[in-house]
Write a structure and sequence with these properties.
Elements (H helix, E strand, L loop, with lengths): L1 E5 L16 H16 L4 E5 L10 H16 L4 E4 L15 H7 L4 E2 L3 E3 L2 E3 L12 E4 L2 E7 L5 H10 L7 E5 L15 H8 L2 E6 L6 E3 L3 E3 L25 E6 L10 E6 L5 E7 L10 H16 L6 E11 L7 H12 L3 E5 L3 E4 L14 H14 L10 H16 L4 H10 L1 H26 L1
Parallel strand pairs: 1-2, 2-3, 3-4, 8-9, 9-10, 10-12, 15-16, 16-17, 16-18
Antiparallel strand pairs: 1-13, 5-6, 7-8, 11-12, 13-14
Length: 450
């Protein structure tokens, strides 16, 4: 049996304030579906985050209907789970647009519910359009979906209730604990337990392509939901890395692991990274912004990039925003126009920005409120000693900003507590404090006995 596996399609994703069309994401999804039809796939898997948000716009719903309709017309069943972007909250019972597609018979949506005794595994009910598993072609497909911070515990519970004599494919929207920043990642021991009863683990959530041995896989995102994801197309040494969709074959009679498993790349809009050193003009009081734009255009033209490319322009060095009036949006538009490229993103992550972030400085035109707030948090963090997370101040600042956004969105106290408890940074701080306390205690004991 041949399976196609995608995850993190994120239809409707808004990128670069809408300057990048969301049709890019639909085109990537359409391409993989066409390949599945051409290669006569038996099943098409979607391991979560078909949509980018719980509220789906009509054009994005239509994109999903058209692709799924083509698969259905060619006799290829689609089996899906929901990711963290498909539902408003992890425990929400509100209807979702993925359920809507299931009710229209465009996909089979699998979801496992839990009670105090553990997971409730129920067969797919065609009448209710609901269930935890479905048998097809001698394989049992089980949908775990997104389980949040409780992923390791709940996955162990699910595994304990899988029948040993079945060939299982498990769909799970999660990643390894060393990569999942908000918690809820699985460990190597969890993988070993899964491998005892699962023939293939179809993963999502982490947009980077990952293979775990020859039986578990996350193919990565189809399109760049964020420009930084373009880095996922390359190994650290510079060699090309496949990302997009997985194709595998399973013999239900063997059932221990796939016969063949490969990740393939699909076409996507190319992101070209260019680094601009701002030091030569970063402190000019006259025509500093014009000099920045001129040098940016020169670098882009020298790189000979294709007109449809996106430029990730990474600014380095120092830029004194107290002395240069830089309208970020206008600068990006001017560079796009002069360099004749599709879109330009000004990336300030590696820039030493002069001036205060504490308030909204009217001289800093076009710099978003988010950037200013993150910068203010970084200033505070930089002035404090953070136990256990030295050299991770930027990550801690981003986490604080996420908490601030959660408060703005009206998240409850329990949801905020779960978000804090899921952060690996908290664990690092606790461990460091404990180690320091133990060290001080030992020192006191030694000094007392001396």
């Amino acid at each position: 049996m041949k399976l196609f596996h995608v995850a993190d399609v994120h239809l409707g994703r808004r990128r670069l304030d809408g300057r990048l069309p969301d049709s890019d994401l639909a085109a990537a999804f359409r391409y993989v579906a066409k390949k599945a039809i051409e290669e006569r796939a038996d099943v098409f898997l979607i391991a979560g985050d078909l949509f980018d948000r719980p509220t789906v716009g009509p054009p994005n719903l239509r994109q999903a209907q058209q692709v799924l309709g083509a698969l259905k017309a060619n006799g290829i069943p689609v089996i899906a789970i929901e990711g963290n972007h498909d539902r408003a909250f992890i425990h929400s019972e509100e209807p979702t647009w993925t359920q809507f597609l299931a009710e229209d018979d465009l996909l089979v949506l699998l979801r496992i519910t839990f009670d105090p005794t553990g997971p409730i595994l129920t067969p797919w009910d065609p009448a209710r359009k609901a269930g935890s598993w479905i048998d097809y072609g001698g394989i049992r497909f089980v949908g775990a979906g997104y389980l949040g911070a409780a992923t390791p515990f709940k996955v162990r519970q699910i595994v304990s209730r899988l029948e040993s004599d079945k060939t299982h494919v498990l769909l799970l929207h999660a990643g390894p604990d060393y990569f999942v920043g908000e918690g809820g990642g699985f460990s190597s021991s969890d993988l070993r337990a899964l491998n005892e009863k699962v023939c293939y683990l179809a993963l999502g959530h982490i947009h980077r392509p990952m293979r775990h041995s020859d039986w578990a896989c996350n193919p990565g995102s189809l399109e760049n939901c964020d420009l930084s994801e373009a880095d996922y197309d390359w190994y650290f040494g510079g060699a090309a890395l496949a990302r997009g969709y997985a194709v595998l074959e399973i013999d239900p009679a063997q059932g221990q692991r796939p016969i063949d498993l490969r990740i393939h790349s699909n076409p996507r809009r190319y992101v070209h990274r260019i680094t601009l050193d701002c030091r030569p003009f970063g402190n000019k009081t006259k025509d500093g912004a014009a000099a920045l734009i001129k040098e940016s255009v020169r670098l882009i033209r020298a790189a000979r990039v294709a007109p449809e490319s996106v430029i990730d322009l990474r600014l380095t060095g120092r830029l004194n925003l107290n002395r240069i009036s830089l309208d970020q949006a206008l600068a990006a538009n001017e560079i796009e126009s002069q360099a004749e490229v599709f879109a330009v993103s000004l990336n300030f992550a590696g820039l030493d920005v002069g001036g205060s972030f504490a308030g909204i400085d009217p001289a800093v035109k076009g710099v978003s409120r988010e950037e200013l707030e993150k910068g203010a948090i970084r200033d505070v963090v930089a002035s404090k000693y953070l136990w256990g997370i030295e050299q991770r101040e930027d990550e801690f600042s981003a986490f604080c900003y996420e908490l601030k956004q959660a408060v703005r969105e009206g998240k409850s106290g329990s949801e905020l507590a779960e978000q804090i408890g899921c952060s690996p940074l908290l664990d690092l701080i606790v461990r460091s404090k404990l180690a320091t306390t133990q060290s001080q205690l030992i020192q006191n004991i030694l000094e007392g006995s001396a």
